[in-house]
Amino acid sequence: MSINYARQSKSIRYGKLEARTAVIDEIFKIKWPHKTIRLLTLPGAWWHFERQVGVIPKHSRFSHFSLTCCERDRIVFNNAALRLPRGKRGIKIGWMKELNNAKVVTNRNDIVLINCNIADFMAITERKYDVVWLDFCGPIHDNVMDSIATTKRVVRTPGLLAITFMKGRETPFYTDLIHQNPNGRAGMITNQIKEMVNPEIEQVYISEYKDTTEMIHMIFKINPYKEINSYVPRNRL
Ligand SMILES: C[S@@+](CC[C@H](N)C(=O)[O-])C[C@H]1O[C@@H](n2cnc3c(N)ncnc32)[C@H](O)[C@@H]1O
Asked: For the domain 13-217, what is the CATH superfamily, name and number?
């Protein structure tokens, strides 16, 4: 049997695979107080993570996932739209007035893809999400930090916030903060997130991996048990 290693190393990115799996593992660890789990993600052109979420077996505790996805690049958006997992009722195209008429494609069931900057979407939406994954491909800079700060408006409690970004090439402001922090880059990010999003937020996972470049992947959990305790299931009301 011959194995084509060159092809394998290009097409299978284990670090990224682990990063996606880690988010799914954390989703399963939480006792969600409702059946439909709402996710807000950056799917890129391929929907790898979103498909991985979709294959969660039917006997799982969740009856349903509902996905809202943003992609700011028009070409990547068009490619993602072409590969959007089909629902029973076909695809529908529309525009979001509140977002400068951003193009929207939906499978009319559980997936909505919007051609916009995720920070702009989070700034205007009234929807709350159980899981937000900001899978940025670039380094930490002010716009990235602004996007992270805006998650405060949309992440539910209990909730998960995952962020992935390039390791290095930060602007001088963040390089200084990293050097001042005894826990380096990860410590700086955690502090910023506590300050900007929620002081109760807890870092539950961190990994570094090599994709096209060195990446850092962090998952945070917001007040995991507070709401669960006060939650009364509908059938017991
Ligand atoms: C690393 S890819 C996502 C990969 C995907 N999550 C996966 O599991 O394979 C990141 C995508 O998000 C887009 N993106 C980056 N920052 C964004 C932002 N602020 N708003 C919307 N899209 C953004 C990029 O254009 C890129 O297509």
From this structure: Vaccinia Virus protein VP39 (3.40.50.150)
Only one residue has tokens 């709401």, namely 227
> Is 0.70 topped by the overall pTM?
yes
List, in order, residues 6 or more apart from 55 with CB less than 8 Å away.
none
Ligand 1-lining residues (CB < 6 angstroms): 20, 42-44, 46, 48-49, 70-73, 76, 117-119, 135-137, 147
pLDDT digits (tens, 9 = 90+) for 80-118: 999 998 777 889 999 999 999 999 999 988 899 999 999
Ligand 1 atom with the smallest distance to the CA of 73 is: 25
Q: Which amino acid is at 44?
A: G
Task: Look at residue 61 in the predicted model and tell me its pLDDT.
Answer: 66
* Domain residue limits, the chain: 13-217
Q: What's the one-letter identity of residue 121?
A: F
Mutate to test the pocket of ligand 1, among 136, 163, 219 (most ligand atoms within 8 A of CB): 136
Candidate from 70, 114, 115, 135 with most ligand 1 atoms within 8 A of CB, to mutate: 135
Check whether 63 has a pLDDT greater than 80: no
Specify burial of residue 110 (Cβ count, 10 A radius: 0-12, 13-18, 19+).
middle
